[in-house]
Specification:
24 helices; 773 residues; flat; Immunoglobulin-like; 24 strands; six-stranded mixed sheet
């Protein structure tokens, strides 16, 4: 092919006038070769002499175009080598899904990545760089891109293996979207079938305000191709035996104009203002404008994306992106009990208006927040976590109404008695800022002693018996509470204190029949006011959880900071329970934030019971965990999660028969479940049922052939069965994977020594040489 192209530059003795149509017909030659046809150099020479004898162009210009053209059609062997290393999933993403919109730097970096984890992270960043509403769950650009691929496959189906999205029309459709106007000429008399597309560009795309694109179908069932004004002769559009014999351009343009007034303009140039001038002045000169326009169209997606994220993958290392620690938020923690004495931890994060960023995309206003909270025990082990993200969308009017208001996020976690630390992180995804807060949480056990919990200043409350509401944060089993976000109340307004008192079942107050709930209000060290409620019958409090809402005497108070003490006292003055809460009385209006939250399960739901049982299990409070799980399984015997946890507890309690029964029932339904097979194998080992243990551990090994713990336990079972060669083989394999296992090395040595007659009775760990099947 290259030889035939270069012959055009040297065969004509007439000198360099032959280079006039040269570029037009060379493209035709290349097209013919690419279509599998041969071309005639005589036709090229004849057409050279018959057409533009007067138009002279420097030879170097045409050589440059040929080199440029060949650079697109000759494959890069290095690129082919690199893409050959990609798994099919990622090759399909690069060459089918993102092929038109991925920039060269992005493609090169993607090919350089050497593991799937980095590739997945890269694809995530790729779409994030193009997201017009960053921070929200919705990525409009990505959704529209895949929608265009689907529509292109449907609209531009081909007769060959190529999908519609890989066709010329599909490529343009994916890059620019549907045309503003599409004129179709499916069966014209003397031209090939054609389609004329008209677009109106936008400043963000960097495209002209108005332009054409013309496609034509050269062979009956072939795909439509994009016409190249200036590079390609208009004769290519003609459905005649020998298009190059038609050199009467005026007639050709007149015939095209009859079909559509825009057609002769599009043939000259895709820019209407340029083509109109060329037609009016009968200017047949060569123009770069259409070629430059097509280059701009191909790079539209690159101009809309910030590809600097690629730098974080340099050197093959994925670098973590950090948000700025610039957000300040005020937390409120509310520890309370339901009527059964189970704890919940509700929390609120108040965000001031200056830390709220609202973005605008196509008159759609939005902001987005992400919340994470981690609960750790006193050993700093993670025992619970909470996560949520909230996307809020507003109209222009709503933005005006809330622009000076704070926002508050409300969350809830199940918690059990113990000492914890709650670390929270709140991120504003639209401004890439975040804040962190950590708080110690001490949860007392109401089973052993009476407690006073809550102590929450609230602005208002609602009795749920009168107006039921769905479960949510700051909603107990009796009340829906609106906390005072900064523990402040307006002067001469209204405010309350919510708190709870819980008493164990066996609580007895010696010599006391009545107890008194008292209050003392201090400003600084000065007692401002004190009062008490009607006496309570002490003997009726055993096992009770009392929820108290006490009105605050704000109308009697001046501005300032106050401390309120609530305490339960015997008739002789003995203090049985005691708690404090601080609040401010201010002149300003109190915060009325926009509230963000998510739905929560009911207080007595299975989800909450499972989570509470899990926390007890982690704290080694197996009896409490088993009690809760027993209730769950009575209600739903098919609950796999609860049954598996119960089997683990029974094994801790050395009740192996009960554990075996639970696991056998579960394995009937899920015989390949790895967690169940491992537990069943461990249970069989403890019961000296080594044959069963081998059967379970071998089924695990089929799925995880190099899992160390399974190899070691399987070796123990084989050794106990007397299959010592098999046991040694497994231990040796385990040591090859992890040589630092001192205990396994000791067991291997014992198994080797056991081959000697005097050592036949020697035990390995707790496993004797017996078959306990």
């Amino acid at each position: 092919m290259l030889f035939q192209v270069m012959m055009l530059f040297f065969l004509d003795k007439g000198g360099y006038k032959c280079y006039i149509i040269e570029i037009h017909y060379i493209i035709c030659i290349i097209d013919d070769i690419m279509d599998g046809r041969t071309c005639r150099l005589r036709d090229a020479k004849d057409f050279c002499e018959a057409s533009s004898m007067e138009r002279k162009r420097p030879l170097i210009l045409y050589i440059a175009f040929i080199v440029l053209w060949l650079s697109f059609i000759i494959p890069n062997p290095l690129y082919s080598q690199e893409k050959g290393k990609l798994p099919e999933k990622y090759l399909r993403w690069m060459e089918e899904e993102a092929v038109y919109i991925i920039a060269d730097a992005e493609r090169d970096m993607f090919l350089a990545l050497n593991n799937d984890e980095a590739r997945e992270e890269f694809i995530k960043d790729f779409w994030l760089a193009r997201d017009p509403t960053p921070g929200t769950l919705e990525n409009e650009y990505k959704d529209e891109h895949y929608a265009r691929i689907a529509r292109a496959n449907k609209l531009f189906r081909t007769f060959g293996p190529t999908s519609g999205s890989k066709s010329e029309r599909g490529r343009i459709y994916i890059l620019l979207g549907p045309p503003d106007e599409r004129k179709m000429f499916p069966d014209p008399q003397w031209t090939h079938p054609m389609e004329l597309w008209t677009y109106r560009g936008t400043p963000t795309q960097g495209l002209p305000a108005y332009f054409f694109l013309l496609f034509y179908q050269k062979v009956g069932v072939s795909d439509y191709r994009l016409y190249m004004p200036g590079f390609e002769p208009v004769q290519n559009l003609l459905r005649v035996h020998d298009p190059m014999e038609y050199t009467d351009y005026a007639r050709i343009y007149d015939e095209l104009k009859i079909m559509a007034p825009e057609l002769p303009m599009a043939v000259q140039s895709y820019l209407p203002e340029e083509s109109l001038g060329m037609i009016l002045h009968q200017d047949m000169s060569f123009s770069f404008s259409s070629h430059l326009l097509l280059n701009k169209i191909a790079t539209v997606p690159h101009r809309l994306a910030d590809t600097r994220y690629v730098e974080k993958y340099l050197g093959g290392v994925v670098r973590t992106e950090y948000a700025f620690l610039t957000m300040v938020y005020r937390p409120v923690y509310f520890l309370w009990l339901d009527k059964s004495g189970n704890y919940f931890l509700d929390f609120s994060f108040l965000i001031e208006p200056q830390y709220i960023t609202i973005q605008n995309y196509k008159e759609k206003y939005y902001t987005s927040f992400k919340v994470n909270a981690t609960l750790q025990n006193k050993q700093r082990e993670k025992v619970g976590e909470y996560g949520d993200r909230g996307d809020l969308y507003f109209t222009r009017e709503q933005v005006e109404a809330i622009k000076n208001r704070p926002m508050a996020y409300l969350g809830r976690m199940v918690i059990t008695p113990g000492k914890f630390n709650l670390s929270s992180q709140l991120a504003n995804l639209t401004s890439n800022s975040m804040g962190r807060v950590s708080q110690a949480i001490d949860v007392l056990d109401s089973d052993s002693e009476p407690i006073l919990a809550g102590m929450l200043p609230i602005l208002r409350y609602q009795l749920l018996e009168e107006k039921p509401l769905p479960p949510g944060a700051f909603r107990t089993d009796l009340y829906a509470l609106t906390p005072s976000w900064n523990s402040a109340f307006q002067h001469r307004g209204s405010g309350y204190l919510f708190f709870q008192m819980a008493f164990p079942e066996n609580w007895v107050v010696d010599m006391e029949e009545k107890v008194l709930l008292k209050y003392e209000l201090y400003q600084g060290d000065k007692l401002v006011k004190s009062w008490q409620k009607d006496p309570l019958n002490a003997r009726k409090l055993a096992g009770a959880v009392l929820s108290i809402i006490e009105p605050l005497p704000l109308e009697e108070l001046g501005l300032g900071n106050y401390r309120l003490r609530a305490f339960l006292a015997g008739q002789e003055g003995t203090v049985l329970l005691n708690g404090w809460s601080a609040f401010d009385v201010i002149n300003d209006e109190v915060d009325n934030p926009v509230v963000l939250t998510k739905p929560f399960p009911g207080l007595e739901s299975m989800e909450n019971s499972r989570e509470r049982a899990r926390l007890y299990y982690l704290h080694n409070e197996n009896s409490k965990a088993a009690e809760m799980l027993h209730k769950i399984l009575e209600f739903n015997p098919e609950d796999k999660y609860s049954a598996t946890m119960m089997a683990s507890i029974r094994m801790k309690q050395k009740n192996y028969e009960a554990a075996k029964g639970l696991l056998n029932q579960l394995l009937v339904k899920e015989p390949s479940d790895l967690s169940l097979l491992k537990l069943a194998g461990e249970c069989a080992l403890e019961m000296n049922q080594y044959g069963d243990a081998v059967r379970f551990f071998e089924r695990v090994r089929m799925q995880q052939p190099e899992e160390l713990q399974n190899l070691n336990q399987l070796a123990l079972a084989y050794f106990a069965l007397g299959q010592r060669e098999k046991a040694r083989e497994l231990w040796e394999r385990s040591l090859k994977l992890a040589p630092e296992q001192a205990e396994v090395r000791r067991l291997l040595q014992i198994s080797q020594e056991a081959e000697q007659p005097e050592d036949n009775g020697k035990e390995v760990g707790n496993i004797s040489d017996t078959d306990g099947q």
